[in-house]
Amino acid sequence: MINKNIGGHRVAYNLMLRTKEELYRDYGIVFDPKWWLLKEDIPFLEECDSRAICSAHRDMMRAYQEWFRSFEGGTQKGHPQYKKKSKKGSYQNTSMPTVPEKLFRAGGIFIPKVGVVKFRSHWDLSNIKKIRNLTIKRSSTGKYFCAICCDVEIQEFGKTGAVVGLDLGVKDLIISSDGMKYENKKFLKKTEKKIKHLQRSVSRKKKGSKNREKARLRLAIAHEKLGNKRKDYLQKLTASIVRDNDVICVEDLNVNGMLKNHHLAKSIADASFSEIRRMLKYKCNWYGKELVVINRWEPTSKKCNHCGPIMEKFDLGIREWTCPICHVHHDRDINAAHNILEEGLRLSRVRQGMPEFRPVEEGVQGTALSLPMKQELCTCSTEEVELCI
């Protein structure tokens, strides 16, 4: 039944998108398709969950809104595309019980039009207060997941009074201003040879054969394991940083521009810079910490954090350098982390309406061990809990 709902969602999305395009192309009419009328033309959709068909209409309208909004500025997005038939898919359901007692019953989770399904989860489901919607997903490896958007109570981390600046890199994934260097595991490099072998194995098999499907599944499992390893490492790493520090300063990196460097694009993509910042952002919001993002044009690497001069010629090959004025020897990444911290603390004080920080003595970098932060304590947050069903 879940497969039928996912297929119905795809069919309904494609039909409504085709109808909207044809009416506009032939008659210039901006038409909003009525999703409930599709069941009259396609009997197959009568067997599907009506909320899956409704979510297809909502997804299509959201895709058009994002497309129109991209013309106003920001990243340019293309016209909404048709959904192709694949091994993975999803649909959303909003007409389900909003209290946990009714959703979780008989040792499983109740999914409308499907029934009670057993699941496996590492989440603590006892702190769920209100359930907003369910998203049923099917992965390319044939696994099924139920993502629950819900309100939960989150216990904030205790205040440590510590502040830190973080510089992201390829050789070391994260370099902090206190001298810590977190290893870049380079998961893709370790798995690349195996993935290449499996991709060749798939291409050799006859299309439509069972052997090709078996080879495709082996390749999908390899990709899934790679993603799970990377995600698990980043989750633990960012959680540790947020737990140990009250103010975290990072740089606004232009990752899309960095990926245009074809000598480093694969390593940068494997490092997941954008994902690290995304995790730090929502975890700081959850646990009552502060994340400060500084301007990407700030010369953090080529600026001496002791006396302040900016080096003119400074390429990526220079990993260590000595300031010609104060003669202090710098590690490139640790120096950048110090400058990120200093600029982040300045922005944090400006944001809170405090006077800007000035070093007491010339040539000596000033760092505050703690800052009085104005924060609203929030014990309730909207979170997505994912269950394996």
Explain this structure.
The chain is 40% helix and 19% strand. With 389 residues, it is of the alpha+beta class. It has 10 helices and 14 strands. The protein has 3 domains: 85 residues, no CATH class; 80 residues, no CATH class; 157 residues, no CATH class. The longest helix has 35 residues. A hairpin with a 5-residue loop joins strand 5 and strand 6. The strands form 4 sheets. Strands 9-8-7-10-11 form a 5-stranded mixed beta sheet. It has a 4-stranded antiparallel beta sheet with strand order 1-5-6-14. Strands 2-3-4 form a 3-stranded antiparallel beta sheet. About 6% of the residues have low confidence.
Contiguous uncertain segments of 5+ residues: 357-380
How many β strands by DSSP? 14
Number of helices: 10
- Structural class of the secondary elements? alpha+beta
Largest sheet: 5 strands, mixed
Number of domains: 3
Terminal Cα span: 13 Å
Radius of gyration: 26 Å
Q: Largest beta sheet: what is the strand line-up?
A: 9-8-7-10-11
List keywords for this structure.
389 residues, 3 domains, five-stranded mixed sheet, four-stranded antiparallel sheet, 14 strands, globular
Question: What's the gist of this structure?
Answer:
Residues 357-380 have low confidence and may be disordered.
Record the SSE blueprint:
Layout: H1 2-27, H2 38-41, H3 50-70, E1 89-93, H4 100-103, E2 104-105, E3 108-111, E4 115-117, E5 128-138, E6 144-153, E7 163-168, E8 172-176, E9 181-183, H5 187-204, H6 210-244, E10 247-251, H7 255-258, H8 265-271, H9 273-287, E11 290-294, E12 320-322, E13 329-331, H10 332-351, E14 380-388
Parallel strand pairs: 7-10, 10-11
Antiparallel strand pairs: 1-5, 2-3, 3-4, 5-6, 6-14, 7-8, 8-9, 12-13
Helix pairs in contact: 1-3, 5-6, 6-9
